[in-house]
Each structure stands twice: as C-alpha cells, then as structure tokens.
Design a protein that fits this description.
InterPro entries: CHK_kinase-like (IPR015897), EcKL (IPR004119), Kinase-like_dom_sf (IPR011009)
Shape: globular
Number of helices: 16
CATH class: Alpha Beta
Protein name: CHK kinase-like domain-containing protein
CATH topology: Aminoglycoside 3'-phosphotransferase, Chain: A, domain 2
Number of strands: 9
Radius of gyration: 21 Å
Oligomer: single chain
Order of helices and strands: HEEEHHEEHHHHHEEEEHHHHHHHH
Distance between the termini: 44 Å
CATH architecture: Alpha-Beta Complex
Pfam families: EcKL (PF02958)
Structural class: alpha+beta
Length: 400
C-alpha cells in the first residue's frame, strides 16, 4: 500500500483553498481509497479522494479528486524518474493542455482539470475525478467497437488540431515534448520492457501450430523492438507533426454512456509520454493496441476518414496556418511507420487484453528472470496475432 501519512485535512485544505481561490474553505472530512486495479495503470499509484468541506462555515460541499503519485521504489520508480514522466505530465496538464482545452471549450474537452502539482516529497498530481462526472473505462476484453473507435479518433483529431495551434502560437511548446516513450537516454528497463516482451511473445508463438513458423523471425527481431519505436519517433520536418498523446490506448481514455450503453462522450487521461512528432504515431498505436479486430480488419478506412474530417474541420475552425495532411499523405505516413504498429501489437496489446484477475504490475513483469505477462496467453490476443502475423510477414516487417 502507498504511504500517505502526509495526506491529511490540513494538506487538502491548503490545496482546495489554492485551487478554488477561496481562503474560507475548511475541510472537515476526507475518504481515500485506491483508484485503480492492477493492470489499469503501470507508471503511477492512484488514490481516489472524497473531500468534504465548507465555505464561510456554511453549506457543506464535496470534491472528488484523483491523486496520482510517482512510485517510490522498484523498477517502476527507476523508469518513471529517469524518463521524467511526471515532469512531462505536469507541464502538459498545467500549461499545454490548459491552452488546448481553452481553444475547444465549451463544446469539447480533452482532459481533466489539474488542481495541484508537487515536484517532490512526494511527487504528485491532483486532478479532478472524471468518474464523478460520469466517465468510465470501456470494456477492454475484446478491444473497442466501431462506436467507441469513432469517438476515440474524433477526440484524437481534436487533440492533434489544438496542439498544432498551440505550437504555432508558441514554437517552444514543441521542444517541451522531445522524449516520449522511445528515447535513447531512458533507463535500460524501458528498453527491456519492449525487447523482452517480444522475446517472450516469440516463445509463446512457438506453441501456436497456426503461427509457429513466425516464432524465429519474431525472436530475431526482439532485440530491435525498442529501436523500432525510436526510429518511428524521429522528428521529420516534412511530416504532419503534432503533440502526440504518446500512449494512446483504451486504458488512457474514458467514455460517457447513455441509458442504452452507447458512448456519448470521450476524454483522455495520462499525459506522461507526450511527444512532438508525426500524427501517424498516435493513429497507429491506438489502432494496433485498442481497436477490435473486426474494426481494424474491415473498417480502418472509416476511422481514417473520420479522423481526417474532424482534424481538418477543427483546424479550420481554429484558424490554423498549417495545412492538414491529405488522405494520401496520411496513409503514406502510416505505411512508413507500420513496424511501429507491429511493435504495439506485440508488446502493448497483450497487457490490455490480459484478464484483470491475472494482471501483474511492472515490477512483477520485469523483476523475474523471465518476462511474465499473462496477457500473452489470452485467447483473444492469440486470435488477433494469428491473423496479423501473416500480414506483417507479407509487408516485410518481420525481416531485419
């Protein structure tokens, strides 16, 4: 359990007075509990807070808050600290995203509001709890269906469009997000996560009669998996570049639903991996990590059209000087970075399809002498990969 002796009435009172800009606030009671299950979040500890307070000693009010804490020990702590993940998220939420949200309000919102950020002892972010606004995770057991996927890609298009405007107004914004998930100077454990994950997958594929012939190729490729990510993230000036979410998968977005269970709204969470690079990166990563096989196999063009339409419309509304990409340019960019999608399929997808009762945290995955990810044994994951591996081979992606 996370150490939270610092989390008392006095601390909460200080935060709320500051975020609400009201020194009359008095916090009378706080309830805290863990905010995520194992497997929902790998690079932070999350606490859900309900704070009861009053203003001017009058009516009692409640505030629902998520506290996101930087891990304090183990491999997670090393990865998170060395990669500066909390620094990236603080700068996104307190500065860049704030500007992006102001451009899209009141109709659309990309993220929760940040209430407070603290750099050390402990390093933390306090964010409004989106669950209290009716947002929740989508069922991740088989990937997002078409309704969810369309909503996710519309949200992504707005995110990218707003980031272009923010970067046009202040080019320094681009330099603030130059690391992302794939960066030469991250800790070796970050590299191990992808390379060992692909090696473990190769061993697993050897047991699948329909696909075992690909096992050796995946095994040879496994040492290069992190490099594939680094190469895909190289900034190329003639691409359509944006601030990418950088870890755009279904656990990092929440949805609102109507009474029939149809999604009506979507919002992003977790901005630790944001990077200024080709917009194709988020598109590919989301497609390969989170979209159901039926949609990726038969309806990718619908998603491309929806993304591009929303992107172009939003950029026009926001008076962008930059031109959006054409469909031809976008498809060419996605094709050029196809191996990045394969990397997401091999290493991120099994985590998202892992059943919750078997999920492990990052220390458990990387600490044992063998890479442990129960998601590699998921039937849905196996079904998807058995269909994707021949395609990757056909495209030449499995050859070094």
């Amino acid at each position: 359990m996370v150490e939270t002796s610092w989390l008392d009435l006095c601390f909460m009172e200080k935060i709320l007075r500051k975020s609400e800009n009201d020194d009359s606030i008095q916090v009378t009671h706080i309830i805290s509990k863990s905010a995520t299950s194992k497997g929902d979040n790998y690079t932070s500890d999350m606490i859900r807070i309900t704070a009861e307070y009053s203003r001017d000693s009058k009516i009692k009010e409640k505030k629902f808050i998520i506290i996101k804490l930087s891990p304090v020990h183990g491999i997670r702590q090393k990865i998170v600290t060395q990669a500066g993940l909390f620094h990236t998220e603080m700068s996104m939420m307190s500065d860049t995203l704030d500007k992006m949200n102001k451009l899209l309000e009141p109709k659309h919102r990309l993220s929760a509001k940040i209430l407070y950020a603290q750099n050390e002892n402990p390093t933390l972010l306090m964010i409004e709890d989106l669950a209290s606004l009716g947002f929740q995770m989508a069922d991740r057991s088989s990937g997002l269906d078409l309704d969810h996927s369309l909503m996710a890609y519309r949200g992504l298009a707005r995110f990218h469009a707003a980031s272009v405007v923010v970067c046009e107004k202040n080019p320094k914004q681009k330099e603030m997000y130059s690391k992302g998930m794939f960066y030469n100077q991250h800790s070796p454990e970050m590299k191990s996560f992808f390379n060992m994950g692909s090696k473990a997958l190769a061993d697993e594929i050897a047991n699948w009669p329909e696909a075992k012939k690909y096992s050796e190729k995946v095994s040879k490729l496994s040492d290069h998996m992190y490099q594939i990510g680094i190469d895909a993230h190289m900034l190329c000036e003639d691409e359509f570049n944006v601030i990418n979410h950088g870890d755009c998968h279904m656990n990092n977005m929440l949805f609102k639903y109507d009474n029939n269970g149809k999604p009506t709204d979507q919002i992003f969470v977790d901005f630790q991996m944001c990077i200024y690079a080709s917009a194709a990166l988020d598109f590919i990563y989301l497609l390969n990590s989170s979209i159901s096989f039926d949609v990726t196999e038969h309806k990718t063009d619908i998603l491309l059209n929806e993304y591009l339409h929303t992107l172009s419309t939003t950029m026009k509304q926001l008076n962008c000087k930059t031109q959006p990409p054409t469909m031809k340019e976008l498809k060419a960019s996605i094709k050029r970075k196809a191996s990045y999608g394969m990397m997401a399929s091999f290493t991120i997808l099994p985590f998202l399809l892992c059943c919750k009762s078997e999920a492990k945290d990052l220390d458990e995955v990387l600490c044992s002498s063998t890479y442990m990810n129960p998601g590699l044994k998921s039937e849905i994951f196996k079904e998807i990969l058995i269909k994707r591996l021949p395609l990757y081979d056909e495209w030449g992606l499995l050859d070094l």
